[in-house]
UniProtKB/TrEMBL annotation:
Pfam families: p450 (PF00067)
Taxon lineage: Eukaryota, Metazoa, Ecdysozoa, Arthropoda, Hexapoda
Official protein name in the record: Cytochrome P450
Membrane topology value: Peripheral membrane protein
Keyword set includes NAD: no
PROSITE patterns, alphabetized: CYTOCHROME_P450
Cellular component, GO annotation: endoplasmic reticulum membrane
GO MF, one annotated term: monooxygenase activity
Family: Belongs to the cytochrome P450 family.
Record SUPFAM superfamilies: Cytochrome P450 (SSF48264)
Amino acid sequence: MFITDADQVQKIMSSYNFITKDPDLYKFLEPFDGKGLITSSGSKWRNDRRLISPTFSKKNILQYFNPVLQETKILINILSEHVDKPTFNIEPFVHRCAADFVNKTFLGVNTKAQFGEMDYFLKLLHRMYTVVHARIVKIWLQNDFLFQLSPYWKEHEEGKKVILGFMEKVIETNNQDHQTKPFQPIIQQLMNMKNEETGFCTHQDLKDHLVTLYTASEDTVTLIVSFTLVLLGMHPHIQETVSKEIYDIIGDKHDIHESNIDKLEYLDMVIKDVLRLFPIASFLVRKSEKEVTMFDYLIPERCSIIISIYNIHRDKRYWEKPLEFYPEHFLPEAVRKRHPYAFIPFSAGPRGCIGKPYAYMALKIVLVTILKNFIIESDGTLEDLKLKTDISIRPKNECFPIRLKHRNSIAK
Ligand code: HEM
């Protein structure tokens, strides 16, 4: 079943009959994610989700504000080299920065991805999104024997070795690291939950959850920052309105502070319209746990339901300018009038994204800090951005071209 109607999505997503992901598709993530939150189901998912959720509450993730900001300031220094230089692809720079702050805040390790230390790892990780997606969409690769004969197999095995090996090393290092940090990384919080009674969190649980959280965060945040910068470069008047808001709320002498986050309302609208145009997961697949009648159809047990977020986000029934970058879609009165399930970039309901508060915080820190320092320029129009999708949605040529100029003083 293919769903593109917000009413139907609401019924599916808020029902416990549809919280099982389609195992025939999600099983290809399991060699990496094991039984982490994205791939697990049933009581394992329910228990783990209940235990992990408080770790990602808006209040708890604020302790990561400064570590994310510190890494972003390193990014600014690196980007300064590109001021007044020709067009370049911003994505690898944001990706390395995101890797460093995710490593710090989730895994409790200090890395220097921004200085090239993790380039092989990040390239391999990126490649795995393509390999896993290929297995999902190319039916012949779903057969283990044929997959092992394909050129993807060697990469898949190398990816497993390097990514899982990295997580093992991180867990080992964390067990030996008794220094007190000004914040408690996610790994530490998960380890503190170790409990014989609940059975959580074994070594395997820890590894599965860390790989899942890692892969769910670094690529998503990188892509949304990169898409936003390209769109702001294409729409100078929107960029100036954001810059003015930043100046009014933060001024040009200080860094962004955690108390500013909720006040940056126009920036929030900008990010949301980027999430609308480029929903990281362009579609979701759920499986019915039992036979039900819904919207006048009999949905049999184990029926696959495909929810096309991409189509809903560009449907003229819900959006005034569906194919344009138009942050005003998120003015409070427009939001009030719209169906609540017409905008679901983080999915929704019990299986909605656990990392939403972390994502919004990181997106705002990185975008504000870049926009306080630079004016972004990019050529072309939104229509020129041809997309493809692997595990995430991204430009077909994987390039986010921009130019930078110094912003000496933010728009006053
Ligand atoms: C802009 C950033 C992000 C977007 C657009 C996004 C989007 C999504 C979507 C659409 C889903 C549902 C996937 C599905 O049903 O298969 C999801 C689930 C999930 N996301 Fe995110 N995500 C983002 C950032 C993050 C971050 C930063 C984390 C890490 C904390 C994270 C962790 C997860 C996890 C663990 C799940 C599975 C939840 C469950 O099934 O219980 N995400 N995300």
